[in-house]
Amino acid sequence: MVEHAVETRGLSKTFRTRHGVRTAVDGLDLLVPATGVHGFLGPNGSGKTTTIRLLLGLARASAGEMRVLGRPVPQELPDVIGRVGAVVESPKFSPTFTGRQNLDLLARAGGLPRTRVDRALEQVGMSERAGDRYQAYSLGMKQRLAIAATLLKDPALLVLDEPTNGLDPAGIREIRELVRSLGEGGVAVLVSSHILAEVQQVCTSASIVGRGRLLAQGPVESLLGASTTYRVRVADPAAARAVLERAGWTVRPEPAAPGSTGSTGSTGSTAGALVVDPGPEPAHRVAQVLGEAGLWPDELTPLRPDLESVFLDLTAEHGLAGGAR
Ligand SMILES: Nc1ncnc2c1ncn2[C@@H]1O[C@H](COP(=O)(O)OP(=O)(O)OP(=O)(O)O)[C@@H](O)[C@H]1O
């Protein structure tokens, strides 16, 4: 088995426009592992769709090399495309045909056995609604049928470009669960999104891009880094702060979340919450130091950065503040 489902080196794509040359992809070294779900993350206009189009032979690169399932593309694309499923643009389904009839047509056109249709419908959780007309489906169901169509050929790599675009929260959740189960089923999934926090929940690894350039890449755990800070909520934050600082730790008041009125719903008010960084010391030491001073914490929560905050830090660091051009 190949180590990487997708590998690019120095991949670049420029477009000539009325306003001059526009660089959509800028020396991209992309590595997508052969298993799991890989998030291809970046704001609108960061070059994700262009990269995917280059990989699938839908556009021609200006420079660089690409491999898909170990084979150089576009040179050997005809040999691998049969094992690559992709949902890049809205597929053309017949609105008056049922979901199953649409897939039957595609299977026949591709010379694939009809048993694949049943399997694909089952994989995307559409078996029960397969007899309904396509035009009666919700957007989420249409998207699931599009994914089912790509599963007909039993792909080793599935490429999904912004699969949750335009979906409501329930539809987003459905697609998220589907992508997760496909990844667990052994298909390498490359899923692009500009909603970083959303994709974080299903990805095992990710590449973060900004303005066509790679900003970070690797397992999600390592992108997020090790957590060393904790949210501490106590009745007397000023006294707690003094005690924690005396222990030699960095302490700051927790900034209020944008638009928040001081309430975080299930955890209650964060007014007076502190963020403490005890360095290599474990959480129970924080509780112990506070307890010894009679300041028992009501909350002690590890604070993990999410991909969104990692991305914002990266774009600021690379002078790309604002993300999309
Ligand atoms: N055919 C084209 N001609 C000119 N410029 C283009 C063309 N296709 C893409 N671009 C530009 O290239 C840049 C990258 O676009 P691309 O669609 O790849 O980004 P993206 O990350 O997929 O964004 P989105 O999430 O909005 O789809 C943008 O500035 C876009 O305007």
UniProtKB/TrEMBL annotation:
<feature type="region of interest" description="Disordered">
    <location>
        <begin position="251"/>
        <end position="278"/>
    </location>
</feature>
<feature type="compositionally biased region" description="Low complexity">
    <location>
        <begin position="257"/>
        <end position="273"/>
    </location>
</feature>
<dbReference type="GO" id="GO:0005524">
    <property type="term" value="F:ATP binding"/>
</dbReference>
<dbReference type="InterPro" id="IPR003593">
    <property type="entry name" value="AAA+_ATPase"/>
</dbReference>
<comment type="similarity">
    <text>Belongs to the ABC transporter superfamily.</text>
</comment>
<keyword id="KW-0547">Nucleotide-binding</keyword>
<dbReference type="Pfam" id="PF00005">
    <property type="entry name" value="ABC_tran"/>
</dbReference>
<dbReference type="InterPro" id="IPR003439">
    <property type="entry name" value="ABC_transporter-like_ATP-bd"/>
</dbReference>
<dbReference type="InterPro" id="IPR017871">
    <property type="entry name" value="ABC_transporter-like_CS"/>
</dbReference>
<feature type="domain" description="ABC transporter">
    <location>
        <begin position="6"/>
        <end position="236"/>
    </location>
</feature>
<keyword id="KW-0067">ATP-binding</keyword>
<keyword id="KW-0813">Transport</keyword>
<dbReference type="InterPro" id="IPR027417">
    <property type="entry name" value="P-loop_NTPase"/>
</dbReference>
<protein>
    <submittedName>
        <fullName>ABC transporter ATP-binding protein</fullName>
    </submittedName>
</protein>
